[in-house]
Amino acid sequence: MRSIWKGSIAFGLVNVPVKLYSATEDHDVHLHQVHDKDGGRIRYQRRCEVCGKIVDFEHIDKAYADEDRTVVLTEEDLSSLPEERSREIDVVEFVPSEQLDPIMFDRSYFLEPDSKSAKAYVLLRRTLEKTDRTAIVHFSLRQKSRLGALRTRGDVLMLQSLLWDDEVREAKFPSLDERVRISAKELKMSASLVDSFAADFAPDRFTDDYQEQLQQLIDAKLAEGDALDTAATFGEPDGEEDGGGEVIDLMEALRRSIDKGKRTPASAGRESKPSGKKASAKETSVKKGGRKKAAAQKAGTKSASPKKTGAGKTNATKTPRKKATKEKSAGKKSSTKKAASTKTAAA
Fold it and tell me: 65-107, pLDDT tens digit by residue?
């Protein structure tokens, strides 16, 4: 165990240096929350409501707020309080042990002597045992002023923090105001039932059945391989610390943009058909016909386009004249042949 506080017990002129230890520990199987879809961990963030940033513990102060104003209390402010600086367990009075209502007990701590000589420690312990009394003490721990009960447990002094009187609620139930009549026979039978269950209390005979069953369930899932890789349940710590959800959304948007950039329209057209599948003969002929038609159209476009000659005239201007000259000469020849055939017929 490691001590969580050092101080001294002070009553009268007697001072007993002690170390404080937690007397209890939690044996529960600790569970955490995860996303049901992917098993990712669900975490709670200390986010500032003004700037929206995640704040480390070293930059967190305490504050008191009413309806209109908020008072911020720094660590220096709290440590300046006299009670916070106190390192003494002050004995206020010694009371009969049976007068303490168990409902007032809060947390339990062990006290260890913190000096070379444990004489004062043993003297106080034996005094409490002999007088069958409990010391009511006042002390400060973890920025709180506390009321406590100092008593013995075997050879060790035990300090139990007590609830303040106004922290214990008063039970007032209207149903208990009704008068109920209990017969002597019923009371006797109830007492007999109690006697049948009578025993000395032995806490080691009792176990936490739920925690045992929970551990068995976890072990069975592990044996069946029904488990996730723990590293895969953690997110990106840098993104979580620096920007929280906004950074994660930005990273997701960047990934989607990259994926979208890889799929260009041309590649998307190619991906529409399964790769490795040969085109049919009909598709091949259609493609070849289309290529020839495209080549012809391209050639026609080039021939139709005006091309300058050395005289500054274009071939496009000469083409109509040549065509007209050819048609004229062809007309003369046909007319000469016609005239000749007419003369022959006349002869």
Answer: 998 899 999 988 887 877 656 789 999 999 999 999 999 999 9
pTM, 2 dp:
0.58
Instruction: Retrieve residue 135's tokens.
Output: 């010391």
Secondary structure of 79-143 in the HEC alphabet? HCCHHHHCCEEEEEEEEEHHHCCHHHEEEEEEEEECCCCCHHHHHHHHHHHHHCEEEEEEEECCC
Structure token pair of residue 248: 């994660």
Residue-wise pLDDT for 179-231, tens only, equals 999 999 999 999 999 999 999 999 899 989 999 999 999 999 999 999 888 88
The H-assigned helical ranges of the chain are: 75-79, 82-85, 119-131, 184-196, 209-223, 237-242, 245-262, 265-271, 281-304, 315-346
Q: For residue 73, give the H/E element and its range.
A: strand 70-73
Is the C-alpha dihedral spanning 172, 178, 183, 189 positive or negative? Answer: negative
What sign for the dihedral angle of Cα 46, 52, 53, 57? negative
